[in-house]
Amino acid sequence: MKFWKILFLNILIMGTMISISSISWLSMWMGLEINLMAFIPLLINFKSIYSAESALKYFISQTLGSLILLFSMILNMIIFEYMIFSKSMILLINSALLLKMGAAPFHFWFPEIIEGLNWINILILLTWQKIAPMILLMYNLKLINFISTIIISSIIISTISSFNQISIRKILVFSSINHIGWMLSAMIFNQSIWLIYLMIYSLMTFLMIFMFYKMNCYFFNHLFLIFSKNKIIQILFFLNFFSLGGLPPFIGFFPKWITSNELMNNNFFIIFILIFFNLIMLYIYIRLMHNSILLKNYSIKNNFYSNNILLLISNLFFILLTPLIVSYF
To answer: What positions does the domain NADH:quinone oxidoreductase/Mrp antiporter transmembrane occupy (predicted)?
Structure first.
């Protein structure tokens, strides 16, 4: 990796750490801006004209969120002369943070930029870039009805948008928005559960993106052709998508299981929406797998033999880990 990429990656991590460890909202805002300024150069790939467009769209959307956040802080200080926020200011701050993390209906920028990014940047965007906005939202989680509306919107919109997608990157984006709804649900009632959820989701996303990165594969039609050449990759794909959909006994089932247990005692309506649309999302994943099984008579050059065993062992490890965790709890 080039030196300048390592430098900006360290600055990006530092910006997140500043945000989540600050005690003043101004310092939190500064940390978010440092994170943004470090991530923009990482998004730009001089070999692709689409990366510059994606970087510009990401910059505009994140700047809009930062402006709303800064405006609400300044306006609150002018009106009330102290940093105890009114409900209207909390609404603005929460909206800005939800915009930054890409929760529906503030997700308009998310699918637009993803097609111009490589797999490394997608991994950072889907995992690390969610940490700071979510923790700041956790600090200011007071408008439960508003957050509940965001949860339902994220679940429904992401599920409907996932139908008939041929882009792997867009499927992962809408899956990410879906998981944001689950994480916000966990955050409302038990703030330790959402951290477990984020960690497991990040691990699942890493495994999937690492597989697609090694194959240099961005669309399902390309992926299905590779399946006909290498059945181990097909098995890995099935395992990862079953886990991402939360099907037991895969590791992705565990965070949804503990979140559902918590919500059963607090909000039955939200858990009904979550489970119902999660079943629809599982149907979408299974339909993709069914289409891949039907394609058997094609061939394509495959450059992904050396990492098959490593990925298979890592996936099986996380599958076997789930029953152990469940039995512990």
So the answer is: 23-277
Residue 324 confidence (pLDDT): 46
Q: What angle do CA 242, 243, 247 make, to 5 degrees?
A: 65
- Listing DSSP states for 185-233 in one string gives HHHHH-TTHHHHHHHHHHHHHHHHHHHHHHHT--BHHHHHHHHTT-HHH
Range in 51-55, 60-64, 140-144 the model is least confident about:
140-144
Least Cα distance to 129 among 144, 147, 114 occurs for 114
pLDDT tens, position by position, 197-207: 999 999 999 98
CA angle 153, 157, 162 (to 5 degrees): 155
CA dihedral of residues 250, 168, 47, 214 (deg, nearest 10): 40
pTM for the full predicted model: 0.89
Dist. CA 182–CA 197, nearest whole Å: 8
Please state the rounded mean pLDDT for residues 50-66.
Answer: 94
Going from N- to C-terminal start, the domains of the chain cover 3-328
